[in-house]
Amino acid sequence: MEIEDVLCTFCGCLCDDIRVEVKEGRIEKVRGACRLGSSKIMGHNRIKSPMIRVNGTLKETSYEDAYRKAAEILVSAKHPLLYGWASTTCEALKKGILLAEEIGGVVDTTATVCHGPSIIGIEEKGLVGSTLGQIKNRADLIVFWGCNPSEAHPRHTLRYSSNACGRFTPDGRKGRKVLVIDVRETRTARNADRFLRIQPGTDYEIISALRMIIGGKAESLPENIAGVSRKELIEIAEMMKSAKFGAIFFGLGLTHSRGRYKNVDNALSLVSELNSHTKFVIMAMRGHYNVTGVGQVLAWSSGYPMAVDYARGAPYYNPGETSCCDLLSRRDVDAALIIASDPASNLPRGCVEALAEMPVIQIDPFENPTTLFADVVIPSAIAGIEAEGTAYRMDGLSLRLRKLVDTEHPSDVEILQAILDNVRRLRDDN
Amino acid sequence: MIIKGGIVYDPANGIFGEEMDICIESGRIAEDARGEVIDASGLLVMPGGVDAHSHIAGPKLNTGRIMRPDDSRIGTEPRTRVCRPSTGYTVPNCYAIGYRYARLGYTTAFEAATPIIEARHTHEELEEIPIVDKGALTLFGSNWTVMECVRDNDLGRLAAYVAWGLRAARGYGVKIVNPGGGEAWGFGSNVKSVHDPVPHFDVTPAQIIRALAEVNERLRLPHSIHLHFNNLGRPGNYTTAIETLELLKDIKPSRMRQVVHVAHMQFSAYGGTTWKDFESKASAIADYFNQTNHATMDLGQIIFGPATTMTADAPLEYANARIGHQKWSNHDIELEESSGVVPWVYMRKMPVNAVQWAIGLELALLTRDPWKVVMTTDHPNGGPFVNYPEIISLLMSREKREEEMKTLHEMVRSRSTLPSIEREMDWSEIVIMTRAAPARILGLEDKGHLGIGADADVSIYDIKPEEIDPSKDHAKVKAGLSRAKYTIKGGVVVVRDGEIVAAPQGRTYWVDAAVPESDMDRMLSSLKEKFERYYSIRMSNYMVQDAYISNPFVVRAGVQPLKEVI
User: Fold this and answer.
1) Tens digit of pLDDT for each residue in B154-165?
2) Across the interface, do A299 and B65 touch by the CB < 8 Å criterion?
3) Which residue from B239, B257, B310, B389 lies 20 to 30 Å from A263 (Cα-Cα)?
4) Per the CB < 8 Å rule, is B72 touching A245?
């Protein structure tokens, strides 16, 4: 049986045109996805059974025991951290937020270590954006800044951006200009009409110079700005101003280089100001397929998009204080529930060491380095393959993930509900 | 349940402040009842409030929350045994929206604007709003398919698309915002009048509005078209308002209601040519409403202090951001709309703001028939809905208006007629503007009144209408309305003494309209092509799935006779 229009649960592109062949309850073939997506949908290294660590080794156990143990850890913790969420459904996060409210925990997401600075930039300046289809149909200039979709979001260019055809862009790539700004010549840069190679950590200066040129202050600039000639930047500014519809996509090259959220703040200002001359939008290249949705659910539940601390009974948000790395490096949390993410591979070393010292519950379909120090491991159904639910594409569009095959594993929603039930029971007993 | 001894206002049923008992059985108003007795002796009793135009759910709300952590910090209330935590003032979290409406005695609120493609998000948020019944209006005014049907003068196909769009969005009615302007904004421009052609589509806003109004009646939808005018928020725009309303004068309504509902009239009742000679034209607008019968309006009253402006009128938000030197979010929505969000502050000493404040009140007081006027703040554009008691006390008391005007820029006296208006509304008129009229305008037959069989949505206030003089005791009016003594929703007491005591899940209303199969087939074949070529998602992933509405109330409409089923 072939299932059509399946959503790919790999990256923030959330492609929804995948065809999956299912035979006898197993996925046989994936058509239309990129290599990254196919490999995710085909599956690998599943955790087979719930496990609890006894005397240093993980021992297989029942789901019931794992839920009880997880609840014990959370109830006896003073300030637990509930981290991850970017690769599961919005419905799972809703349960997680309720759990955090009841135990006075912190909900934080992988966004704080990728596009967290972008969100802070948006708090400063707002976001002048659009859906991806708007860009596909209209944009005649695409700028990729500090991102490399050819390798990180392989179908982005064809479906949504530089190579897509639309109503006012019938010639696709031929009718468009593509500008890449990066510190190295990526595969994406090879597809560009113009590649501006900049020195690492100089994004802020370059953006400021472009803003000055667009604001009519080019003559105040020096001949050379952070290693780039004024002349070249004037040409690039002209390219931007003369576009009918321009779009900037930016990646971790902006958020994780010197300046961080200020880089994004500056880029958002640039786009805002370009709208005095022509039409321009900007979008963050979100990584995990539902990292956008996590921010959305947290925002409508708590008012804040990440790093929300429920220890006071009401949501409290202060990135730099309540974000996971800050909490861990200060040893300000004493237990962690890690879901649909792998902090052991992605957080700074000191934070991973802090995690390793505290009781850790892991909920994930797949084994990963976090499993190595988890005390309770609960395998889950893969969202979007074995369980339904909602996810948000990088442009904020919500879509419903399909269930393709059955599984013996409970979904993240069911697991979190069971832990919540156990937490309530333990509380009542006390 | 029996509510005993209250002074009941139920103008839809001709009851204007009579002492009587209200009986509730199985969530509806009944002839008699048993069970709990609520002592309302001498207290003000009325149907639960109905908000016909409020921005309470969807992407633009969340955009506001994300760009305004400063606002989320205001109004923080911790979790209780019954309530999830609350945050925010102009952009409250979902839980706060439900609790705060209930505390005011409101039991129904309709989200005013949702693009079809983003309706799933809207419903995700509506599901999280506790207590109140709700629904969402669906945006059609800059939609490619709509404009192509209008250009081809093919109203059958347009009706099919509207019916399909409402079903896809699980929407309640046809919302039109700055028609054509959303498409023009796709390349950074706008339409300047109702006769200014939309670039690339060879139609005018006037044609879009008229065609959608005709189709709205052909489909016998419970609500009329719900219109945000072109040129909204600009000096001199009252002429656009009247010109637009004139376009619709000859259209016959298919139900006992208006042909067009005008959203937040205050923002379209401006005279002058620039902000310098800006003045109120509320009297001209009110005259028009007094002389005609095809239109209704909601106020869009402004409230001094912070607001968050959010609208599908994206060019307006761009202008707001420039005027206010504010942070600006914009969101263009492929093939359908554009939108924007900009934080705002209305200031007492700012001449324009002072006059805007007067315009809202003038519109309410100069329009003779309260059934034509719904009280709103266009939450959170004019200010948050929690300020409704402030507006009511202003409408009921000339003394309060005079006191307020003393704190405002003096231009409020020279550029509006408010100082000369003597009218003070009575409780019946207030109940019409906040309950009976919005329910009738939306086509909600079981709401806004307390007749037998109506939804048992009742609010009881700690105000004794026979002892209090709202003209003088306006502070007591405001305090009493701000914290309902009881709010009863579907027969359940949800508020007691201003505190939430229960938070049941409300219903979500949407309209399922039937159209001839041949029209639907014709429409779908051209729509399928749009999905293949232009949309960035597949048609099979577009419609809002049933999973997103846990407690639906489907209103049937369309070419078949009307029948409502639960």
Assistant:
1) 999 999 999 999
2) yes
3) B310
4) no
Taking residues B69-92, what's their average pLDDT? Answer: 97
Contact residues, chain A, for B341 at CB < 8 Å: 126
Q: Quick one: which H or E segment has residue B226?
A: strand B225-228
* Other CB atoms within 10 Å distance of the CB of residue B451: 15
Residue in the structure block whose two tokens are 């508020």: B495
> Pick from A367, A157, A348: which is nearest to A249 by CA?
A157
Which A residues, 232 through 291, put their C-beta within 8 Å of a C-beta on chain B?
A: 244-245, 272, 275, 278-279, 281
A399–B537 C-beta distance less than 8 A: yes
Q: Residue B503: how many CB atoms within 10 A of its CB?
A: 19
**Hey, of A90, A302, A411, which one would you mutate to test binding to chain B, going by the most B CBs within 10 A of its CB?**
A302
Q: Which pLDDT belongs to residue A44?
A: 79
Cis previous bond, B380, omega within 30: yes
How many of the other CB atoms lie within 10 Å of CB of A9?
25
pLDDT recorded at residue B560: 57
Q: Which of A16, A132, A314 lies closest to B77 in CB terms?
A: A314
B63 chain-A contacts, CB cut-off 8 A: 127
Tally C-beta pairs within 8 A across A and B: 188
Nearest to B66 among A122, A137, A275 (CB): A122
Tokens of B497: 């003494």
> H/E/C letters for each residue in A289-322?
CCHHHHHHHHHHHHCCCCCEECCCCCCEECCCCC
Question: In 3-state terms, what secondary structure has residue A355?
Answer: helix
Summarised one tens digit per residue, pLDDT across range A181-227 is 999 999 999 999 999 999 999 999 999 999 999 999 999 999 999 99
Q: Which residues of B touch A123 (CB under 8 A)?
A: 66-69
Q: Where are the alpha helices (DSSP H) in B22-170?
A: 59-67, 69-72, 94-104, 119-128, 144-151, 155-169
For the segment A373-430, what is each residue's pLDDT rounded down to a tens digit?
999 999 999 999 999 999 999 999 999 999 999 999 999 999 999 999 999 999 988 7
Give the integer Cα–Cα distance in Å for A11 and B420: 63
The pLDDT value recorded for residue B566 is 41
